[in-house]
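Incident log, support desk, overnight shift.

02:14 A customer reports that sequence design results differ from what the structure should imply. Their input is reproduced verbatim below. On-call engineer (initials T.W.) acknowledged and began investigating.
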């Protein structure tokens, strides 16, 4: 699960033990969007221990008041070229929201996007990583 305040940008190929099992399908670098820290680029260790994994209690930028601790994704069914991408938010290990986004593979466009730009970008990264593997 990734930190809900993480805005991934590009692949980050570090010495991940099991990169395919990472919440966003591989490691990603990007920026923090936590209030007061917008635009900060977390260092490699932070990316590895917190941003890409969620439940970042050791991170000093993680807001005390937050809607979620982590976000995770899963591929749902694919029909007529439309892929369902499921997301779940967690807070204190309990569900804190879930839903489904729709991605049309042929045109590489999202038919149903998440209103939170960070979750949407995470979904894009996740799908990109899964597609690269096929
Ligand atoms: S883990 Fe910390 S630095 Fe990384 S996105 Fe979350 S709040 Fe920002």
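02:41 Re-run completed on a clean worker. Output:
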């Amino acid at each position: 699960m990734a930190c809900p305040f993480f805005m991934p940008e590009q692949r980050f190929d570090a010495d991940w033990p099991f990169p395919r099992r990472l919440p966003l399908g591989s490691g990603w670098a990007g920026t923090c969007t936590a209030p007061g820290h917008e635009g900060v680029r977390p260092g490699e260790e932070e990316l590895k221990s917190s941003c890409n994994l969620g439940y970042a209690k050791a991170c000093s930028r993680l807001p005390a008041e937050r809607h979620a601790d982590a976000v995770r994704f899963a591929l749902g069914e694919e029909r007529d070229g439309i892929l369902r991408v499921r997301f779940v938010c967690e807070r204190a290990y309990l569900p804190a929201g879930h839903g489904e986004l729709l991605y049309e593979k042929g045109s590489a466009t999202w038919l149903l996007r998440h209103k939170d730009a960070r979750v949407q970008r995470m979904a894009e990264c996740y799908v990109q990583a899964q597609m690269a593997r096929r």
